[in-house]
Amino acid sequence: MPNRLIVAAWVTLFAFSAFGQDSINTASSGGEFKGSAHFGPAPPMSHAVTGAPYSGEIVTEDVQTLADGTHITRTMQPTKVYRDSAGRTRTERSMFKGPVEKGRNVPDAPTIIEIVDPVAQVRYTLDPKNKVAHKQALVPIATPAHRPARGTVNAAGSGPATATADTVRPETTTEKLDPQTIEGVQAEGTRHTTTWPEGAKGNDRPFSIVNESWRSPELQVPVLIKNNDPRSGEHTEKLTNLSRSEPDPSLFQPPADYTIVDEKEDFTIKWGAGPQ
């Protein structure tokens, strides 16, 4: 049986679009990509950003520094993003989300394309390998009175919070950073520093986690996000190859040779025989 890679749901800090994806299962044999991806219901309709078209690539990179000073850098497969003047968005990403490493035998992974059309109030999930467009209606945003209650999570992320007098809590500070130009656009930055006291995580001295977010007021999207955690290293997501030109209108609709399937709830896309 071929080795199987189970990849958890992809959640990105960049809020370009919501995929509603629950899980991915992949397997490769002789360079052939086999697997499946499960997608949930369409996300609620969000405020469309109009009059600010752009396109680019989201590049994700992780840098880990070992005790001897060795740096291990992992650059992930880039994600392509587009938005037209009407607020329609298109996101293209490979189902293989592993790092791009020299000499690595990466299977011919398919690409998933998501088109969110706030004008027609639909989302298309395109499967280029099988030439199928999965169509879902966008749902209205629930009002606060009708939103389901959500449980809170404690600082350790282990379940519902149980606040007690002796709970060890981190201290977080926030600071505004001087604006700077990133990829040719003005960006406003915010830095959050969370400091855990001694003993909070089994640590014998305080340590800090630093998060920076740089957002373009003009485009209304993040252009750079950095997370520096001494336990895991530095994680960076950056919008690169930025173009302000109007994207080709054909990018925001299914190709003519695709079969359109109306999906009411969840759906699954399969490639090859799938993992056994």
SSE layout and pairing:
Layout: E1 4-8, E2 21-29, E3 32-39, E4 54-65, E5 71-75, E6 79-83, E7 89-94, E8 111-117, E9 122-127, E10 132-137, E11 171-182, E12 185-196, E13 207-216, E14 221-229, E15 233-243, E16 259-262, E17 267-271
Walkthrough of the structure:
This protein has strands at residues 4-8, 21-29, 32-39, 54-65, 71-75, 79-83, 89-94, 111-117, 122-127, 132-137, 171-182, 185-196, 207-216, 221-229, 233-243, 259-262, 267-271. It has 276 residues and is an all-beta fold. It has one domain (4-141, 168-271). Strands 4, 5, 6, 7, 8, 9, 10, 11, 12, 13, 14, 15 and 16 form a 13-stranded mixed beta sheet that branches. Strands 1-2-3-17 form a 4-stranded antiparallel beta sheet, with no helix packed on it. The protein is globular, with a radius of gyration of 21 Å. It starts with a strand and ends in a 5-residue tail after the last strand.
Proportion in helices:
under 10%
Biggest sheet descriptor:
13 strands, mixed
Total count of helical runs of at least 4 residues: 0
The low-pLDDT segments are: 1-24, 146-166
SSE sequence, one letter per element: EEEEEEEEEEEEEEEEE
What's the overall average pLDDT, rounded? 79
Number of strands: 17
Please identify the structural class as seen in this structure: mainly beta
Estimated radius of gyration: 21 Å
Oligomer: single chain
Compute the separation of the termini in Å.
8 Å
